[in-house]
Write a structure and sequence with these properties.
The protein is mainly β and 93 residues long. It contains 1 helix and 6 strands; from the N terminus they run E-E-E-H-E-E-E. The structure holds zinc ion (ZN).
Length: 93
């Protein structure tokens, strides 16, 4: 999947379209107090193996996220592009 490095996009702070620089959005840090993480850790206590060992189901692709930075006010915003895919995102020169 290809995406332009610079594009014209709407900035909610400037309230009109400005030039934005696109970067790959990094995945956020896992919250250790989130309900899923706590459930997982509770299952791991005591004797017994892993909670999620071999998964027979096919893995689902992820939705690609792009971080757009306004070149006027430097405000950043995330944008999801396309549908679920396993392909890596590439930026045009
Ligand atoms: Zn702006």
């Amino acid at each position: 999947m290809k995406y332009p490095k610079e594009l014209n996009a709407y900035c909610p702070k400037c309230k009109h379209h400005t030039v934005h620089k696109a970067k790959l959005a990094s995945k956020g840090k896992a919250r250790h107090m989130a309900i899923g993480t706590r459930k997982h850790n509770r299952k791991l206590t005591g004797h017994g193996g892993k909670r999620a060992g071999k998964v027979p189901v096919k893995k689902q692709g992820v939705r690609q996220k792009v971080m757009l930075e306004c070149q006027v006010c430097k405000k950043k915003q995330e944008r999801i592009i396309g549908t679920r895919t396993k392909k890596k995102l590439e930026f045009n020169a």
